[in-house]
């Protein structure tokens, strides 16, 4: 009786392995995964979040470059016309 039981357990193990790793198993698992959209697991997987970060950094960089350009132009005007130009930050008091 023990040999029959052991034979049935081995047969069951072989059948389970065949179902899990046999021909056609890859197609069964891929079709189930292909129907689902990729899950967003964190903010670094979210394309919209990453795009917003990139836009924000671009705007900050553009504003910094614009401020540097204005400072250079103002410095060039000061050198060209001398120190008698009023500061744009400190208007003359009346």
UniProtKB/TrEMBL annotation:
Residues 61-94 are annotated as: Disordered. Residues 61-83 have a biased composition (Basic and acidic residues). Residues 84-94 have a biased composition (Acidic residues). This is Secreted protein. It comes from the Bacteria.
